[in-house]
Amino acid sequence: MRRSEEAAYREYVVARMDQLRRVAYLLCRDWNTADDLVSTTLLKLYRHWRRAERMEGLDGYVRRILLNAWIDEQRRPWRREQVAEELPEVPVTDADLAGDTDLLALLGELPPRRRAVLVLRFYCGMSVSQTAELLGCSEGTVKSQSSRGLDALRPLVSRLETT
């Protein structure tokens, strides 16, 4: 990679790192796994930077890499660490998401595909067609998964509000 290409890559990564971490966290609900997913994503992007930097929808391409990395991690449970009763250190928190712990817990109750649709549609602000393209499914699937995901969240949210 040439110096100018590497400088453009670094500039892109610095500008998007926080957003990528948040999206990864919303998908997997674990900061360590989110960091691993972002690292994997950025490594794959680095390998294909010459082609990728000329794309119109570079952010969508990177989100697709991130989403594929997360799905790949879900398919390989033997690669994940085992859950421990006690954590050895204090977890890292994000100021933007700190007040949304209840919402994050509710998102965790959804199946991975619905969670991905809701995160992409409502957190990333993507359209139905953009989400469908990124997930490799039809727009109807995105609409139905959004509807079902929101339907599943509504009673849980109202239950939280009454307590």
Description:
- The chain has 163 residues and is mainly alpha-helical.
- Helix content is 72%, strand content 0%.
- About 6% of the residues have low confidence.
- The N and C termini lie far apart (56 Å).
- The chain has two domains: 96 residues, RNA polymerase sigma factor, region 2, helix turn helix motif (Rna Polymerase Sigma Factor, Chain: A); 65 residues, Winged helix-like DNA-binding domain superfamily/Winged helix DNA-binding domain (Arc Repressor Mutant, subunit A, Orthogonal Bundle).
- Helix 1 packs antiparallel against helix 2, helix 5 packs across helix 8 and helix 7 packs across helix 8.
Quick rundown:
It is built from eight helices and no strands.
CATH class division of the largest domain = Mainly Alpha
Low confidence ranges: 90-98
Shape: globular
What's the β-strand tally?
A: 0
CATH structural architecture of the largest domain: Orthogonal Bundle
What's the CATH superfamily of the largest domain, by name? RNA polymerase sigma factor, region 2, helix turn helix motif
Distance between the amino and carboxyl termini? 56 Å
Do you know the CATH topology of the largest domain?
Rna Polymerase Sigma Factor, Chain: A
Radius of gyration: 17 Å
Average the pLDDT over all residues and give the rounded result: 83
- What is the structural class? mainly alpha
Number of helical segments with 4 or more residues? 8
The structural domain count equals 2
Strand content: under 5%
- The helical percent reads over 70%
List the helices and strands in order: HHHHHHHH
Question: Describe the biggest sheet?
Answer: none
